[in-house]
Amino acid sequence: MIDVETFSVALKNIRNQKLRSYLTLLGIVIGIASIISLIGIVQGMQGFITGELQSIGLDSIFVEPGSEMGMSTAIAKTLSANDLDVIKRIPGVKDATGFWETSAILEFKGQETEVVLLGMEADKMFLLEDMGYVDIIEGRQFTKTDRFSIGLYEDFAKETFDTEIKVRENVEINGKKFRVIAISKPNAFLSGFGASNMVLVTDTVVKDFFDEPDPLELVVMVDEGADIKEVQEEIDDRLEKKHGAKDFYTMTSENLLEGADTILGLVGLVVFAIAGISLVVGGIGIMNTMLMAVMERTREIGVMKAIGATNNTILSLFLIESGLIGLIGGLIGILLGILIAALASFVAALSGFPFNAFPSVELIGGALFFSLVVGMVSGWIPAQRAAKMDPTEALRFK
Q1: Alpha-carbon dihedral sign for residues 114, 120, 121, 122
Q2: Does residue 319 contact residue 8 with C-beta atoms inside 8 Å?
Q3: pLDDT at residue 2, as a whole number
Q4: Which of 170, 239, 361, 394 is the most exposed place for a label (fewest CB within 10 A)?
Q5: Is a pLDDT exceeding 70 seen at residue 277?
Q6: pTM score > 0.85 for this model?
Q7: What's the angle, vertex CA 230, arms to CA 224 and CA 234, rounded to 5?
Q8: DSSP 3-state of 172
C-alpha cells in the first residue's frame, strides 16, 4: 500500500545516501537535458523554417535548372527567357518571372566587397515583397524607368563598410555607378544562410552588363483556387517537350516545407536515440544503486517485515525510491535543458537566424513522465528482491 509514510521513508533513505544518489542522477539528468534542449532546438528551427516558407506563400512554384539529385543552380544553366512565355500560357498561372543572377564587385568610398546581383523585371519586383524576400523600410519600389538603381538589405548596408550606405547614395558595381533607391529589412531566412549580400537590380543590368541573357531560375504564382499540383505537372510536361529533355525540376512551397520537415524530423529521431543511450545508462545506474541499497538494508527489511510490513509495502518502498530518483533527475535535466535551449535561441538571434527553442509543454511533461518510468522500471528487480526476502534470514544477515 502506497501512503504518505512510505513516501517519507523513501525520501529519507535517498537523503541518507546523498553522494550515491547524486551520482545516480547524472545519467538521467544528461539524458533528459539532451532531449529537452536538442529537440527544443529542432522544434524551434522547424517552426522558424515553416514560418519563413509560409511567408513565401503556398501558391508558388519554383523552376530550377539541373535535377534535384544532380547539378546545382550554380553550375547548370538550362532555362531561358522563352520558357516564361510557355509558362504564362498555362491555365491556372497568375504570373511568372525569372531571377537573373551573377556575382560582382561593389565599391563604396574606396572599399570593395563581393556581392550577388539578383535581377528581376522591374514591373515584377512586387513579387519579392509578396513572397517575403523583400520588406522595404526606406526608399521606394523599382519602376520601369529604373536602370542604374539598386536595393540593399539593411544589415549589408550598415555592417559591410566603415560607413553606412544610405538611400540616395551612389556605389560602383564593376566600375559602373548605381544609386541606392531602397533599403529592405533583413530577411532572417536568407541572412541565416549568408545571403544578406544580395543586391537587387533590374534584369536589364544583368543582361546588358554581365552577358546573362537567360534567367537562372523561374518563379510562378498560381491563381487562387487553381490546383497547384496540376499546374506543376503541366509546367513539367510543356517545358520537357520544349527542351527535349528533363534538364530542370520544379518545386512548390509545400514541397520545400515537406522536405524541411522530413530532414528536421530525422534529426529529431537521431537526437532522441542519442539521448536515449544516456537514459539507459542512467537506468542501469539506478538499478545498481537500488541493488546495493537492498543488500545494505537487508536487516532493516527483516525488521520491517517482523513488525508487520507486507511484501507489497516493501515493493512499494523501493519502487518509490527508484521512481523519485528518476523524477528528481528528470526535473534537474529539464531545467538544464531549458537553459541550454534559451542560450541557443539567444546565440541564434545574434547570428541573424532567430528561432524560439523553448520546449513545448508536451515535451516537458513527456520527459518528466519518461524519467519517472525509467526510474521505476530500473528499480523493479531490486524492489522484487527486497519484497521476497525471508524475514528470518534477513534478520540474521550481517
Answers
A1: negative
A2: no
A3: 52
A4: 361
A5: yes
A6: no
A7: 115
A8: strand
Highest mean pLDDT among 183-187, 299-303, 327-331, 349-353: 327-331
pLDDT at 340 over 50: yes
Pair 283, 374: CB distance under 8 Å? yes
Distance CA 33, CA 338 (A): 8
Instruction: Give the residue among 64, 2, 53 at the shortest CA–CA distance from 313.
Output: 2
Q: What span, in angstroms and rounded, lies between the C-alpha atoms of 370 and 172?
A: 61
Q: Domain coordinates of the chain in residue numbers?
A: 4-53+258-396, 79-246
Amino acid sitting at position 66: G
The three cell numbers locating residue 190: 536568407
Query: Who contacts 227 (Cβ-Cβ below 8 Å, separation ≥6)?
Result: 92
In whole angstroms, what is the distance from residue 118 CA to residue 106 CA?
13
d(CA 60, CA 251): 9
Whole-angstrom Cα distance, residue 150 to residue 354? 27
Nearest C-alpha neighbor of 184 from the set 121, 218, 142, 216: 142
Structure-block grid coordinates of residue 59? 501558391
Cα(385)–Cα(373) distance, rounded to whole angstroms?
19
Residue with cell 566600375: 175
Closest CA to 191 of 355, 19, 14: 355
Hey, how many other C-beta atoms are within 10 angstroms of the C-beta on 223? Answer: 14
Residues facing 235 on adjacent strands: none
Q: How many CB atoms lie within 10 A of CB 260?
A: 17
- Centre a 10 Å sphere on the Cβ of residue 192 and count the other Cβ atoms it contains: 20
